Amino acid sequence: MGLGSTAKKIQSLSDRAEAMYKQVQKLQQRVTGLEEKAEETHETVTRMDHQLSEQRALLLALADEQGLDGEAILAEAAIDDAEREAAADADANSATNTDAASGAASGDTTAE
Question: What is the DSSP letter of 107?
Fold first, then answer.
């Protein structure tokens, strides 16, 4: 192997290493940006959670002032929400099962 081809190979290797280094730098910047966004999101969620707690306390106080059982109302609302979610999940599952059954019936297969 001549010195010329060795120099070309070294230059090629150096170029690839430089390109990879630039990619790593870009990825590092993206990760840093994502970390900052995650921290901002965490702060926003924490602030909103605090505000929600304050609003709940205010609503319970207003309900109590009106002679209503606020906790019972909230519990009933939570049950209604859970029932709606369960029904929606059941609908989604039955649609998925129907799609899977029709795909199997038509002979659709996926090669791996």
Answer: T
The two three-digit tokens of residue 103, written as one number: 């795909």
Q: What is the DSSP letter of 109?
A: -
Residue 70 · residue 60 · CB < 8 Å: yes
Predicted TM-score (pTM) of the model is: 0.55
Reported as a single tens digit per residue, the pLDDT across 65-108 is 999 999 999 999 999 999 999 999 998 888 777 766 666 555 55
Sign of CA dihedral 62, 64, 67, 69: positive
Q: CA distances (Å), 50 to each of 42, 55, 56, 86, in order?
A: 12, 9, 10, 28
| Alpha carbon separation from 72 to 2, 15, 16 (Å, rounded) | 87, 69, 66
Would the CA dihedral through 69, 74, 80, 86 be positive or negative? negative
Cα 77 from Cα 75, distance rounded (Å) = 5
